[in-house]
Amino acid sequence: MRPVKFKKQAKKIRQFFRKRFCRLCREKITQIDYKDIKRLEKFITDRGKIISRRSSGNCAWHQRMIARAIKRTRYLALLPYTK
Ligand SMILES: [Zn+2]
Asked: What residue segments make up the domains of the chain, in order of their start?
């Protein structure tokens, strides 16, 4: 049998990663500008990593778009690779 404590913890983790509706779909955004750093900053961690789809709740289409834009922005040194 599993201890009760473990069960509670598992529930908490699931709540943290709760899937939300894609933010960009709600705003009806079809293009992401790589110069729009303010928007892209919301999708990277404080260490400069791209937040996964699992935790950001983006759809595959928008996640791909964001990843591409962030990588382009990094190359232009507008965003850091790491901090
Ligand atoms: Zn979307």
From this structure: 22-83
Q: Return the CATH fold of 22-83.
A: 30s Ribosomal Protein S18 (4.10.640)
| 14-59 tens-digit pLDDT | 555 555 689 999 999 999 999 999 999 999 999 999 999 998 999 9
Residues with CB under 5 Å of ion ligand 1 are 22, 24-25, 59, 62
27 Cα: distance to centroid of ligand 1 (angstroms): 9
Q: Is residue 57 classed as helix, strand or coil in its secondary structure?
A: coil
Q: Any idea what the Cα angle at residue 70 is, between residues 68 and 74, rounded to 5°?
A: 120
Q: What is the Å distance from ligand 1's center to 67 Cα?
A: 13
User: For the whole model, what pTM was predicted?
Assistant: 0.73
